[in-house]
Amino acid sequence: MRDLALLPKAHLHLHFTGSMRVDTLAELADRHGIRLPHVLLDDDPLVVPAGARGWFRFQRMYDAARACVRSEADMRRLVAEAAADDAAEGSGRLELQVDPTSYAPFVGGLTPALEIVLDAAREAQAATGVEIGVVVAASRMRHPLDARTLARLAAKHAGDGPGQVVGFGLSNDERRGTTAEFAGAFAIAHRAGLLSVPHGGELLGPEHVEQVLDHLRPDRLGHGVRSGEDPRVLERVLQDDVPLEVCPASNVSLGVYAGPGDVPLRALVDAGARVALGADDPLLFRSRLVDQYRIAREAHGFTDAELADLARSSITASAASPATRARLLAGVDAWLASAPAG
Ligand SMILES: [Zn+2]
Asked: Which of 242, 247, 289, 318 could bridge to 280 as Cys pair (CB 3.0-4.6 Å)?
């Protein structure tokens, strides 16, 4: 077995607040005099039984954590640490999702909030060697006109250079909002050349995936893990060649599946889906990027050759430059050619 932290990969599903280290959260809460739900600092803050609808608990804790990020220095620190942690796990390309709305009041508005993240991403890329693209994510909990405002802001910073915006997403509770009403925002993002990377098909099933496909024209799907519950919808995902950002630990923590072995990772890969594993919110799920590959190995029996294929999928599904892709893919070949340890 080869060391999964040395396997070059791309990380395409990680949220800004959710990437925070637990120690950092504790420190920021202390500095700002905020009392956190103590469970947030526990070993396992979230795991709920399957079917117990972990979302509301998740949302409460996520909001509490986000409330601790209230200065430019805090924001810069999160980006720097996310990049450093990704680098330690073999990620050569990070696409970090941020909704600047919550931080805007502390730094003078939406534009500075995003520009701080972009500038911090440039610095973190230089410091760690991890190439970072930013995904601006709108929230389903807000009005679709807010999503358009964010799309226009994202469009202004569109590009594939260091610390530029590469994509536009839609996150938060899938059961809220009407997917079709966000089509206008995605059209703005699309015209600016941004990737469409909305969430869909985690809390809700294939009918939701279909709505997202119809209205938001995704280049990748955040989760989409339940597409296979309707063979016709999975066929559309395959036909349209939409990679799925599958986050097994997130699925289990939110009660979508009973255990890591119940996530239909093997079935999706066998069906021909392009899967990019992601950690989603390691702060709450206590499971980082390498842990997702470990789940594939230990709960689904993926061989090192199959794990290398998962890493290749993550790289080719990313918006990395051709040179970065080639470098990372060559690294995957070298990993597989190296002698297994133990
Ligand atoms: Zn997510």
From this structure: 247
State the fold for domain 4-337: TIM Barrel (3.20.20)
Distance separating alpha carbons of residues 313 and 341, to the nearest angstrom: 24
The residue ranges of every structural domain in the chain are: 4-337
Which one of the listed residues 202, 235, 298, 306 is annotated catalytic? 202
CA 201 to ligand 1 center in whole angstroms: 11
Ligand 1 centroid to Cα of residue 200, in Å, is: 9
Read off the pLDDT of residues 199-223 as tens digits, 9 standing for 90 and up: 998 888 899 999 999 999 999 999 9
Q: If you measure from the C-alpha of residue 167 to the centroid of ligand 1, how many angstroms do you get, rounded to a whole number?
A: 14
- Mind listing the pLDDT tens digit for each residue in 234-279? 999 999 999 999 999 999 988 899 999 999 999 999 999 999 999 9
Query: How far is it, in rounded angstroms, from Cα 288 to Cα 5?
Result: 11
83 exposure class (CB count in 10 Å sphere: 0-12, 13-18, 19+): buried
Question: How far is ligand 1, taken at its centre, from the CA of residue 338, in Å?
Answer: 33
